[in-house]
Design a protein that fits this description.
175 residues; alpha+beta; 7-stranded mixed sheet; 3-stranded antiparallel sheet; 24% strand
Length: 175
């Protein structure tokens, strides 16, 4: 089932094609969403998962615990985010950078302004953070008496029964 996941200032909402809210990360809806699942869809970085991946449990070659490295990794990441929070570029900054690059590339050639404008728009659109993303609610699929969540088998059909995670939240997948 295709639906739209919308990022609000304080929560995520899931809307059907008629614009009705069908689930949210806050109380008040019949169905719940996992903030972690929504963050993953929107590309929000979970620094603790990154640290765990970089420094898995166990002892490293120097005899120090991996936990120390994970803590340092997280502190360094958070410090970098803090130091860079004010370093944002405006649309005008981006346009200026594209124009400079275009000028360097085509100093001796005639440049087509429509191509430049198109390039500017593509770059600017790619940098803007989305607030709405089309997603799919993961559902069980059946093949006779067998249930699976794999869509690889062409003989299975979608039952329309939503899959829920261990906390009773809908499982979403970006399209």
């Amino acid at each position: 089932m295709k639906v739209e996941l919308v990022k609000r200032q304080d929560h995520y909402g899931l809307y059907n094609e008629d614009g009705h809210k069908i689930a949210a990360t806050i109380d008040g809806c019949n169905s719940k969403l996992s903030k972690e699942n929504c963050d993953e869809i929107f590309g929000v970085v979970d620094v603790e998962k990154l640290a765990e991946k970089e420094y898995p449990n166990g002892i490293d070659g120097t005899g120090r615990s991996a936990e120390i490295y994970r803590r340092i990794y997280i502190e360094g990441f958070n410090k970098a985010m803090e130091l860079n929070k004010d370093k944002l570029f405006t649309i005008e900054d981006i346009k200026h950078a594209i124009n400079r690059g275009w000028a360097w590339i085509s100093i001796e050639e005639d440049k087509d302004c429509s191509v430049l404008s198109e390039l500017e728009e593509k770059v600017i659109q790619s940098l803007q953070q989305p607030t709405e993303i089309e997603v799919e609610i993961r559902c069980y699929i059946g093949n006779g008496d067998k249930e699976s969540d794999s869509f690889k088998d062409p003989l299975v059909t979608n039952t329309g029964i939503p899959k829920l995670d261990e906390n009773g939240c809908l499982i979403l997948r970006r399209l």
